[in-house]
Structure formats: structure tokens, C-alpha cells
Design a protein that fits this description.
The chain is an alpha+beta fold and 100 residues long. It is built from 1 helix and 6 strands, in the order βββββαβ.
């Protein structure tokens, strides 16, 4: 379960047995949601949030923060996805200390 980002109490991570579409799990406290990155012709066209079974979803405010983070760092998320799932290499977690 590689953690890829930490951002002011938010943890962004992948499970080690993921599937497409490219997506990232976002955990804050006891709440967790999953965000699918919908790409078309190499560009991010949509971010879709879905609930994770067995977990309370992120609050509306947390969802907006997580989505804004994903929008800003989506290229990094995709690079880490490819490195981990396609190239089978380890990825490092990055702690973001600057507010969006």
C-alpha cells in the first residue's frame, strides 16, 4: 500500500493490487474516498469521487480539498501510478507543506 502524498492531514495512496482507471485513495482521519482520474488524449478531463465500501466518505469540505490537490498534482499521481504498477518500481511519499 504505497503512500504517495501527505498534505495537511490527508494521506493519498494506492493499494498494491489496483485496477484501472487510474485512481487514488484519500484518507483523512477515519474517512476515506476514492478519486478516479479520467483522462482523454493525455489530459485530465474529470475527477470522479466514489465511496469506499466500509468507510465513511470524506466530508464535502475535505472532498473539495482533496479534489483541488489531485487537480494540481495529477501528473505526479499518474507518474507514480506508472512507476509502481507498470514499471514495478517503488515510489516515494512526498510531504507537501505548502497550501494550495
Amino acid at each position: 500500500m504505497p503512500k504517495i502524498f501527505e498534505y495537511f492531514g490527508f494521506i493519498f495512496y494506492f493499494y498494491s493490487n489496483e485496477h484501472e482507471p487510474i485512481h487514488v485513495h484519500v484518507l483523512r482521519g477515519d474517512n476515506e474516498s476514492v478519486f478516479d482520474l479520467i483522462m482523454m488524449d493525455g489530459e485530465l478531463v474529470e475527477i470522479r469521487m466514489r465511496e469506499k465500501k466500509g468507510y465513511e466518505p470524506l466530508s464535502e469540505k475535505e472532498r473539495r480539498t482533496a479534489e483541488a490537490f489531485i487537480r494540481k498534482y495529477h501528473r505526479n499521481i499518474i507518474e507514480k501510478w506508472i512507476k509502481f504498477f507498470v514499471l514495478k518500481q517503488s515510489v516515494r511519499s512526498t510531504k507537501i507543506r505548502k497550501k494550495l
